[in-house]
Design a protein that fits this description.
With about 100 residues, this protein is mainly α. It has one domain. The chain is about 80% helix and about 0% strand. About 20% of the residues are buried.
Length: about 100
């Protein structure tokens, strides 16, 4: 299991990558990647809130948007070990870098 700071960073990196795939700015990864993005987004919405995720989606290239989402994730991951385990598995499953 990844340490919480690395898990939060990996989650945000995967969101950036997958949102680019969904938006078509990266080579298409197929339905699997789009499905991964939807699963990750759905899970994060229920855990860190729609507002934090919506702000990130509008400006995901901005360093402050990434930092804000990472911080929200870290706080939530410290509070909820079950969410941490679930997110760790999901990031491992969808990450193109792992």
């Amino acid at each position: 299991m990844l340490p919480i700071p690395e898990l939060a960073a990996a989650t945000v990196a995967n969101l950036v990558y997958l949102s680019d795939v969904v938006d078509g700015t990266r080579a298409r990864g197929g339905d699997r990647l789009i499905g991964s993005y939807v699963r990750l987004k759905t899970r994060l919405t229920s855990q860190v809130g729609q507002e934090a995720l919506a702000s990130f989606e509008q400006r995901h290239a901005a360093p402050d948007a990434r930092a804000a989402l990472r911080q929200a994730l870290k706080s939530r991951l410290f509070e909820d070990p079950a969410f941490r385990a679930e997110l760790d598995g999901l990031v491992e499953e969808i990450s193109p870098w792992m």
